[in-house]
Amino acid sequence: TKFSSIDEIIKPKFAGKKVKLRGWVHRQRSGKKIAFIVLRDGTDTLQCTAKKSELSEEKYEEFCNIKYESSIIVFGTLQKDDRAPNGYELHVEDFELIHLADTFPITKDQSDAFLLDIRHLWIRSQKLTQTSRVKAKLMEGARNFFKKEGYLEVWPPIITGSSCEGGSTLFQLDYFGKPAFLSQSAQLYLETLIFAHKKVFALTPSFRAEKSRTTRHLAEYWHLEAEAAFLDLNGIMDFEDGLVTAMIHKVARDEKKSLIALGRNPKDLLAIKAPFERIKYDEAVDIINSKGVKIEWGEDFGTGHERALTKDLKSPIHVTHFPREIKAFYMKTIDGKTAECNDLLAPEGFGEIIGSSQREEDIKIITENLLRDGSDIADYEWYLDLRRFGSVQHSGFGLGIERVMRWICNLEHIRDTIAYPRVMNRNTP
Ligand code: 4AD
Ligand code: MG
């Protein structure tokens, strides 16, 4: 007989059928006459029950001594069992150990620090398995949406010669004896690519040397960015609303079990509908102050400000038109005072998930902004060429995948949204 996978057999038509499975021992419990393992095979888990009366004495003994995380082949009959977590159990008739594991180091109630040190084993846990599945579905929803909207997926470089988001969070490296940087954002390259493809998107790792320890910053995160020609600020916000809705609805439909286990009701995500509310920075500043958190006009938002603004909300909200002095050199200004930009903030206090803007077309203003920031114009000559050869109105954004994950998986710390978190004090395993 062929091997089956758990997710395909826990269905009524397989009840009473003989199946062969292989995987890892997730839990184990044994008594005098009956013993259980929970088998995990990468698609789901299944309780497998062995009775002493139905195996040889020797085999039963072996079954009782299987350690956690051993790899195993089990053979038996699938039975409906309403007490089992997914409604089925396997009645074991035979089994074969592939590898008897050493004593597994992870037991109950271990410290966060230990679990991070042993991350390569902890990623087998239910919680991290569920978050990985949710993340894959988020991206599937995103790719479907980009395809439907006619965006081409592209692959910008990660090693770069110029900064996109300011020097203070740049990781520098030695590039054959000369300095180079790890990308903070693919934006400037995506801007070049719209002249070839009109509408593009990319998923790339982005790097930020964040010197503060927070629950929402990683040094390496996955950045989903898009850029489109002939689109203004309102147009890009409409697109973002459609994209975020498509992503979270995909997860709500296809990963219900994982979401519920993580403490998020899929129905609440399905209730979120585009378009999202849009308010200007000025109004946001008033609201934040009215919630008792102090902020002055001209200050950028910190975690506490965004929490005050979003903690009572159920849907994401856009904050537009920040003062241009605190924003990046590439953002367009119409009134000379504010930028044609928006941050999309997740509800329930989670805060920023997207940074976005219409881009400045005027080469003079961009050059002034670069000088204001103390940048070397020579490093940006290639970028300025975009304003010399067929310049058009265009807009784009960057979405932090782990920021969205933290919100929809209801996680306190961003490190639990990624298999191998890179933060200030950790780059292993
Ligand atoms: O707001 P940011 O810095 O904007 C940009 O990088 C633009 N160049 C994007 C663009 O227009 N193409 O970053 C965009 C998003 C943030 O909204 C946040 O979701 C995420 O990237 N992000 C981080 N996620 C995790 N850890 C960090 N240290 C992050 N920094 C930014
Ligand atoms: Mg930002």
UniProtKB/TrEMBL annotation:
Species of origin: Promethearchaeum syntrophicum
Keywords: Aminoacyl-tRNA synthetase, ATP-binding, Ligase, Nucleotide-binding, Protein biosynthesis
NCBIfam families given in the database record: asnS, PRK03932.1
Superkingdom classification of source: Archaea
Pfam families linked: tRNA-synt_2 (PF00152), tRNA_anti-codon (PF01336)
Domain Aminoacyl-transfer RNA synthetases class-II family profile, chain residue ranges per copy: 133-429
Originating gene: asnS
Family in the record: Belongs to the class-II aminoacyl-tRNA synthetase family.
Name of protein: Asparagine--tRNA ligase
Broad enzyme group: ligase
GO biological process, any: asparaginyl-tRNA aminoacylation
EC code: 6.1.1.22
GO molecular function, one term: nucleic acid binding
